[in-house]
C-alpha cells in the first residue's frame, strides 16, 4: 500500500457517514434542481379582450419588469434572465434561464411571469421555455447593475463568475 495511514474505526465511521451525507444531499438537490422543473409552460389568458389594442414588446417588458428577484430586488430583465422573446399576434413566447440550475426562486419567477403577463388584456397565450444552455453568467446583468453590485461588493457569491 503506498500510504500507510493508521485510521481508527471511529474515524472510518465518520468518513463513511460524511460520504453518505454527501450522497443524500446530492440526491436531494438533484430532485429539486433543473430536472425537477418543467422545461415548458403554457397559459391562456381567460380575461383577454379582443377589442384591446395590439400586443407590443413594451407592454410585455413593462409586465416582466414587475417580476423581482426576492434576494436582490432586481427584475428579471435587469438580471438578464430573459434570453429571447417573440410576439406573434396575441401570443408571447419567452425563453429564459435562472442564475443557477438549483435557484431557490425558480417557482417564484415562473409564477411571477404568469401572474404579471395574465394581467395584460391584449395577451391571449403565454409560452415559457426554461433553459440552462447557455448557462447564465454575470455578463447577462444590465451593465450598470453589474457595476453597482460588484463595486459595492453586494453581489451574492454565485454571481461572481465571468
From TrEMBL:
<keyword id="KW-1133">Transmembrane helix</keyword>
<feature type="domain" description="MIP18 family-like">
    <location>
        <begin position="60"/>
        <end position="124"/>
    </location>
</feature>
<keyword id="KW-0472">Membrane</keyword>
<dbReference type="InterPro" id="IPR002744">
    <property type="entry name" value="MIP18-like"/>
</dbReference>
<feature type="transmembrane region" description="Helical">
    <location>
        <begin position="12"/>
        <end position="29"/>
    </location>
</feature>
<dbReference type="InterPro" id="IPR052339">
    <property type="entry name" value="Fe-S_Maturation_MIP18"/>
</dbReference>
<dbReference type="Pfam" id="PF01883">
    <property type="entry name" value="FeS_assembly_P"/>
</dbReference>
<keyword id="KW-0812">Transmembrane</keyword>
<protein>
    <submittedName>
        <fullName>Metal-sulfur cluster biosynthetic enzyme</fullName>
    </submittedName>
</protein>
<dbReference type="InterPro" id="IPR034904">
    <property type="entry name" value="FSCA_dom_sf"/>
</dbReference>
